[in-house]
Amino acid sequence: MLEKPPVIKSYRWHLGSIAWILHRITGLLLVFYLLLHIWVIHHITSGPEGFNKVMSVVQKPIFLLLEIGLLGTVLYHAFNGVRIMIVEFADNAAGAHKAIFGAVMAIAIFLFLVGGVPMFMHFLHAVSH
Amino acid sequence: MAEYTFRIFRYDPDKDETGRIQEYRFEPEPGWTVLDALNYIKWNLDGSLTYRRACRHGICGSCGMTINGKNGLACETQLKDLGTTVVTIEPLRGFPVIKDLVVDMEPFYDKLYAIKPYLITKTPPPTDKERLQSPEDRKKLDGKYECILCGCCTSSCPTYWADKNFLGPNALLKAARFLFDSRDEGFEDRVNAVDDKHGVWRCHTIFNCVEACPKELNPTQAIVDLRKLMLRGRL
Amino acid sequence: MSEYKGMFKVGECAKYYGTDDAKVIHEEPKGVDIHNVHLHDAVVVGAGLAGMFAALEIKKAGYDVACLTKVFPTRSHSGAAQGGIAAALANLEEDHIEWHFFDTVKGSDYLGDQDAIELMVKEAPRIIYEYEHMGVPFSRTPDGKIMQRYFGGHVKDFGRGKPVLRACMAADRTGHVLLHTLWEQCVKHQVRFYSEFFVLSLIVKDGKCIGVTAWDLINGGIHIFQAKAVVLATGGYGRCFSITTNSHANTADGLSLALRAGLPLEDMEFVQFHPTGLAGSGILLSEGARGEGGYLINDLGERFMKRYAPDKMELAPRDVVSRAEWSEIEAGRGIGGNQYVYLDLRHLGAEKIKERLPQVRELAMKFAGVDPIEEPVPIQPTAHYSMGGIPTDIRCRVLQDGKEKWLEGLWAAGECACVSVHGANRLGTNSLLDASVHGKRAGKDVVAYLSTNPVFEVLPEDAAEPAVKEIEWVLNSNGPERPSELRKILQENMYTLCGVFRDEQKLEKMYEIIKDLQKRYKNIHIEDKGTKFNTHLMEAIELGHLLEAAEVIVASALNRTESRGAHYRTDYPKRDDENWLKHTLAWRTEEGVKFDYKPVVITRFKPEERKY
Amino acid sequence: MKEKRTSGGFYAWLFQRITGAILVVLLLLHFWVTHGLPKPEGVTYERIAPRLATPTWKVIDMLFLVCALYHGLNGVWMVVQDYVDSELWQGIIFFLLVTVGGILFFLGATTVIPFKPVA
Ligand SMILES: Cc1cc2nc3c(=O)[nH]c(=O)nc-3n(C[C@H](O)[C@H](O)[C@H](O)COP(=O)(O)OP(=O)(O)OC[C@H]3O[C@@H](n4cnc5c(N)ncnc54)[C@H](O)[C@@H]3O)c2cc1C
Ligand code: HEM
Ligand code: SF4
Ligand code: F3S
Ligand code: FES
Question: Which architecture characterizes domain A22-128 according to CATH?
Answer without folding.
Answer: Up-down Bundle (1.20)
